[in-house]
Amino acid sequence: MKDVTLVLEDGTQFKGKSFGYDAPVAGEVVFNTAMMGYPESLTDPSYAGQLMTLTYPLVGNYGVPQFSFEKNGLPTFMESDRIYASAIIVSDYSEQYSHWNANESLADWLKREKVPGITGIDTRQLTKVLREHGVMMGKILMDDEPDNIPEADYEGVNFVDRVSCKDIIRYNEGAGRKVVLVDCGVKANIIRCLINRGVEVIRVPWNYDYTGMEFDGLFLANGPGDPDMCGDAVDIIRKQMSVSRKPICGICMGNQLLAKAGGASIYKLKYGHRSHNQPVREVGTNRCYVTSQNHGYAVDASTLGKEWRELFVNMNDGSNEGIRHQTNPWFSSQFHPEACSGPVDTEFMFDRFVEAL
Length: 357
Fold this sequence. Notes:
This protein is α/β, with parallel strands linked by helices. It is globular, with a radius of gyration of 20 Å.
């Protein structure tokens, strides 16, 4: 293993060893407190441009499943067709793995997809730095290549445009009710949850004008980066809401885009929500759910239009976790109901959407 150094933008340095692809990389350093799910997280397009720190100390002990695909084109065990995170940072990488579904090691997978991975990092201290300062840009440098210094390609980048599909893709054709899914970086399990509820899914690029299409409902997917970079998507959502009362449901980035279409503004969280254990309360009830989340921005609920209300709130910091329209069947969640990996306590959000079609 080569010696590497993680350098944060404030000058803080962490020494470690490379166990993935040996190449320097730069990006936004974030942390995820989940205890499992690195195959799903690495292939989640919402991590595009980010150096993902896992706070759980032991990583790699259950290997990586085979990268296979179902007949409908969706990956069997992953959330997309490749790794989207720019790098993974762990405390203790396990070279030995054992799991009934394992096909290769995490290190072999990273090397094959040319994604750096570093171990031996004090991830507890790194997380403390990020919590106190907020998420920061960072660089992973190879100690034997001191002059090879990458530049971060993050600020002002429309990552949604980078990860969204470029052409229309259809799933479960002829099933009956049709749902247009706006692909901002959609996870495979979102599509799977819709297919399993007997609808046809029409997956369109993030900036595609679907308002002239025939469909029964609109679904706004998750995605990476700053939602303020997605003005075209917001304009199309507003156009759709001005001509139709058809049901609309959003998840994660979809929640933020729907809120922006409803007049709200977005702000960046200090260090984001990335975990399997975020407690969320449904407004107007005493029901609290354990949710899986992955986002760095939030809706400023105080700026919502008069026709909108909060649907969920985060019990840790009071930030918005979903919105709803008072009269029309338009609603969303900031958390991931499909939660792959993670808890599936809130999968009823898909049931609510399909019932409204």
